[in-house]
Structures
1.
Amino acid sequence: MNIENQSIKAKDRTGMIDVVAHDTKTGEVVLVMNEPDGWDGSDARLLELQERFNAYVSFLLDGEMASEHPDLAGKPARIELRCAHMPDPRTIELLGMIRDQLAFQEMRMEVVVAGGVTAHRSNLVF
């Protein structure tokens, strides 16, 4: 698959939830958002990220998650953004705003940046 096809595929994922899981250690429902592409800080890329987060929040708040996964209904939620590359400064700023808004809904956000053999977990201090 070439890079152009991968970019088109990423744009088509706006309304898709990549992974729904239950973290038995924390008791949280975890929605994983995979972002394999690099970050360029462009308005288009930031809008795409914002739209993906909106879809994830809607999935949690509008009852879709509860109807598809009734065993997870009522559990606290975390959205985990898994990035192949470290976000650029504009993306980090947007993630800070998203994190603050999620906190109002009693949701957490965690950013995991892949780095070589191991992944780096961070709640990104903004």
2.
Amino acid sequence: MTLAKTGLGNVTSIAASANADVYTAAGGKKAYIRALLIHNTGTSSSQDVNIYFVPNGSSAATANEIGNMTLTAKDTAFFELAYPLTMTTNGDAINVANGSGNVTNVLVLGDVES
């Protein structure tokens, strides 16, 4: 197994009360998700976010929620996994749902097979 060492994409900005896939497996290559870097852009209030591993053909739901956190104003946090989450099926996704209030920025950290 050779890793591409190119990262998994750019920052995804998620509007208040919205959700977005921050990474989707593609190209028939295994992806290894090590962590999410999550930033609350708001200057005066906390922000709740929920994190989901969504299998291909499914949608974000309690059954596939893998974490949640509350970030204080202008806070940045890591959602780190003890062992990388391996994504092997095209269309599997990491989805982040943002609560009401502020924009949240998310960067997925990991690698993909070359």
3.
Amino acid sequence: MPMDLHYAHDPDMKGIVVATDGSAAATAALDEAIAIAQGTGDRLAVITVWRALQGDFGLAYPSGALLNELLDAERDHAESALSDAVARAQAAGVTAVTRLATGDPAERICAYAAETDARMIAMGSRGYGTVASLLLGSVSGEVLRKAPCPVLVVREPAARTGQDSHAQVAAGG
């Protein structure tokens, strides 16, 4: 279910996949990807992955209307994150295409990078410590393990305080 908001002139041109959820960390990664694209002439392929809510959330009698409202809100947020990313890229003179996907975020991001033959993936990280990442999981960690290309991980701006470097690059498979 791709949603192209701005079509790239050369669909075979390598580009940078940017994973966004609209968070501060994702926006910081988008800004880094835009800066790189301005220098390389790459296009951005921006993806937002949302999980369709399932289950009754512990409610004895879940309301179908409530579930539909939650799904609509999630989809609206995902579409807004994509629109905002495209607007930032276009304002900087960078071409961007988008994809709104559902499913496992790490799997969908890596599949999109493979499909677009991406030069790299740029994404944010909330900067959880080791224990929190073990308990909560880490999409960026999973992408680092499965990516078909190098991955640029940019920490959330608040998590960068006092650090010289705010981005990390890891080579992927």
4.
Amino acid sequence: MSDQTPPPIPGNWAVAHVGNTGAWTIGQVWIDHAAGRMCMLVQAHHCNALGSIHGGAMATFADGQAGAVSDYTAGTSAHTPTVTLTIDYIGSTPEGSWLVMDVTLLRTTRTLIFTQAVLSVDGRTVARSSAIYRNFSGKDAQ
């Protein structure tokens, strides 16, 4: 989806673009900073031979969970490199589905941001993830 039509999911969505991520460039995503949510339309270039999102593409999308945490990343140029990312795949996500990621900010320190996320399609959980990011917007940021 390359237009500015928001997803058919309730929320205060703003469009963004996830690029330069290698083989699994996600492209257009939608972020609802107030709710800590992010979503994407699963397209053919995200899918494996079975027509479902490839695990690498889903992990790339899940790696953006810090971007949904507005207090630390919205409207800033702060880069939050990934320290660690885990993902558990629970179900399939076919092409044409809206993949929604609900993010919870667990804790922050001057140097780290801890998050967890649940990824779903039509209210059905398809993956869960946790991540730790480097926090360069902290008091002692270098």
